[in-house]
Design brief:
single chain; about 240 residues; alpha/beta; five-stranded mixed beta sheet; three-stranded parallel beta sheet; 10 helices
Length: about 240
Amino acid sequence: VVTRSRRQASRLAHALRRLGAEPLVTPVIEISDPSDGGVAQAAAVDRVGTYDWVVVTSPNGAERLLAALPDARALGGVRVAAIGPGTAARLAEGNIVADLVPERYVAESLLEALPDPPATDGSVLIARAAVARDVLPEGLAAAGWHVDVVEAYRTRPVIPADADRAAVATADIVTFTSSSTVENFVAAFGVDAVPPVVACIGPVTAATARELGLTVDVEATTHTIDGLLEALTTFTSP
């Protein structure tokens, strides 16, 4: 089962098919505009040159930031941090090269990798989903940074059709690529409908799954779609 938004599911689904699996694309989330229509992000972009760092936490956030920027040159001397190579790759499509991609693709690793703020008024802009962990902004503030968080997008639940429920009932494995996919899958289908094998893209997603009572059988060491595919291949190999 591929639970990503329908627009993002194709890459994982195609790769699974090449590996000999039958992907059941059953999105439980969709990506939508921020609740304020992007007003806060637009205002932050207008003054983006005043920040020391811009932090983008997902490919969706990168896409929304690129759409809001009039030109990559607007960043000027601002440094950019991306959590994960997928996010960095999406930025690169807009001619923005990330200055920092932490070794582990989680907020905690970025906190360790980001340098200390300057002596006066170091500032960071974080573009992220409406609902996200506060580890990053709270950690940066504790380190002495002034932090502005803007809502770049929202994830909304998708109500499954009867055909989706029937398909999920036959599945062997379910893949989760974010905490929101876990939460919305369980809300939509229930714990009892979870397929026998649960595969998660990384530790944050896996922690959410366990909090909801699921047993995580596969957890990618590299927290990317390719890493998830590699972990699944290893798990299912005889």
